[in-house]
Design brief:
about 190 residues, mainly alpha, 6 helices, about 0% strand, elongated
Length: about 190
Amino acid sequence: MGIIELIIIGIGLAMDAFTVSLGKGLSLRRVSPKHALITGVWFGGFQALMPIIGYWLGHSFSAAVSDIDHWIAFLLLLVIGVNMMREAWADDAEQDDDLRPRKMFVLAVATSIDALAVGVSMAFLGVNIWMAATIIGTITLLLSFTGVYLGSCVGSRLGPRAGFAGGAILIIIGIKIVVEHLIDGI
């Protein structure tokens, strides 16, 4: 998996955090760089940590499933992508101004569960997890930081579409993995 694909996956995974960041921006009376940085660091940090944990878990049992690893990666990305798209249609993004650690921890974990499953997929594909986690975390930090500011301006119009696009990106990457494996097998 190349750097371009990792960037695309990073953008797709960041959409949940971006959507929640838009909600934070909508709910804050006055947005400051501190608010945006707190949000970005929490979300970016967890989006970087969770693929590492998933990779470790996936690597632990990858030898047992090496013949079907591409299908597992595809199914995980498909399920994650469909779930993100379903949640986007529900339009239930969290919108409150609470930036205390307890609340941010819960939101960071909730928005990064998808990254855990993607980390499992990356173990099957032999991806450099340190590079992947750095890219995913950085993209999420930047998009979340920006999302807080955008939320204060236009978040109510953009939020649901961001989550839907993120899910579609993950599904496309999953399809690409299976197609490449099938072509290599010919």
